[in-house]
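In full, the data.
>
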Amino acid sequence: MTSLRNNKALYAAFDLYPSQKGASTHIQQFASTLFTHYKSGLLYVLGDDELSACQKEDSVDIVRFVQQHSNFIHRTRAYGKFLQNIIDQQKHSLALCHFRDPWSGVPILSVKNRPYKTVYEVNGLPSIELPYAFPHIAAPTLEKISALEDLCLQECDAIVVPSFTIENNLIARGVAQSKITVIPNGACISPSVPQSDADLPEQYILYFGAVQPWQGVDTLLRAFSLLADLPSLKLVICCSVKPRHTKQYKKLAEKLGLGARIIWKYRLSEAELLPWKFHALASIAPLTECTRNLQQGCSPLKIIESMAVSVPVIASDLPVTREIVDHKVNGLLVKAERPAEFSRAIRLLLDYPDMRKQLATQAHAKIKNNFQWEMACEKLSELYQNIDMNIQKEKY
């Protein structure tokens, strides 16, 4: 690792950065806010063979953990140990550490008499999400991870969450509400409509993002199979992951006879994805009724970003989606995991173009007035200012 400047701020995340995933967008927005507030900073994230392990961008040092481990838990431990070494070098200059996960939080919070304040940004909890990625993970392991989460929740100075559903979950775990700040995810309002790519079909509905089980891609495929009488309508699926992660869904699509009616795209850049968002008839967010979406909560970027470009959303009717979408005002909410209801909602938008346009207009207004990244970052900056003021009070 190259020598680092003495930084006042650290942003740590056990996420690949940059990437096509929503987490990357979130990191870019919040880390930039942190480093702007403190005039410099250190970003510690995951890397791969294509990204530099160390780089400098203006006043920001970027360090990427690039070691690969076949065992996920072993990798988190190695990541934490590497971060501990960084903190040992930086702790005397740091004023604030902002982290997104317990793998980052434990080493940050383990420093005795730490001279810096800490913010835990809780977008998800590994104890809830890991069983979806690793179905055979042992219960004792999950209990240990949950204990690490509780340690971070109790020991940090402030907590940031993107939805009230997550806030309620943390309060149920014993976290004081006064410690939590809800800052919803956002979108950037584009000043112009991107030109339609020659590759775009004339009529299509869109799904974009990751394909974990809780996303409900299988529900969408089954819903689309019920629209066989609309041969000109295409389903475009823009995945933020590699093709190998979609094998099961491609098999299901073939089984349902959808092969020629689906367009698959993978790991598009934001610039490449933008035309697909803008020109879609509707964007679908078929989230499932599961622990991750109901108990933990989330703030789906695919919904916010679609509404921001005046595309009506059809989403599962869940507490997390009701925080963003107002049914029949700026989008449509249907019962989760019901393909027939999703297909009916799609038909409704196709059959009533005036209603579709009205929903699109209201969707754009909802995001413009409530869910811009500029607003989210402003609220985060206010939190940092309050922390700074508390530090000054403690000195006197």
In short: The mean pLDDT is 95.
